[in-house]
Amino acid sequence: MECGPRCPRFKLQSRVEFMTDLLHVDETSFQNEVINSTQPVVVDFTAVWCAPCKMLDPVVSLLAQEWNGKVKVVKLDVDNYPELAMQYQVMGVPTLMLFVDGKPRERLTGYQPRERILAKFKPHLAQ
After folding, report:
1. Residues 41, 42, 47, 53: which is the catalytic one?
2. What are the two backbone dihedrals, phi and then psi, of residue 44, each rounded to the nearest 5 degrees?
3. Is residue 14 part of a domain?
4. In CATH, what number is assigned to the domain containing residue 65?
5. pLDDT by residue, tens only, the chain of 127 residues
6. Active-site residue among 42, 50, 64, 108?
7. H runs (alpha helix) in the chain
8. How many domains does the chain contain in total?
9. pTM for the structure as a whole
10. The domain containing residue 54 runs over which residues?
């Protein structure tokens, strides 16, 4: 049965399409895009099934637009790359981790409003 634009499935598909502008990293590209980056990088450790991750997606996209050219924002699916999640001790999703000079400097776990993310990460971005 089709339910149109009010259907939750329709809204979810729209949100997924909205998020396609962020770079998704894997084990190979993580080294180049995050560790070797000359600019700060926020890694969104996420999972497809995670409801709080879906809630955080628009916030992460907004921050990526605001930080364009200053901070790189990438996504990593923990189910596809559990070794990276274990390496950085990601115990829950979503986890946002800020890397500066290839090293993790700060992290936030769970859904966070934009203001809390900015307050936590901004001191490290002024360096």
Report:
1. 53
2. -95, 100
3. no
4. 3.40.30.10
5. 455 555 555 444 444 444 447 999 999 999 999 999 999 999 999 999 999 999 999 999 999 999 999 999 999 999 999 999 999 999 999 999 999 999 999 999 999 999 999 999 999 987 5
6. 50
7. 8-18, 27-30, 51-66, 82-87, 114-125
8. 1
9. 0.83
10. 22-125
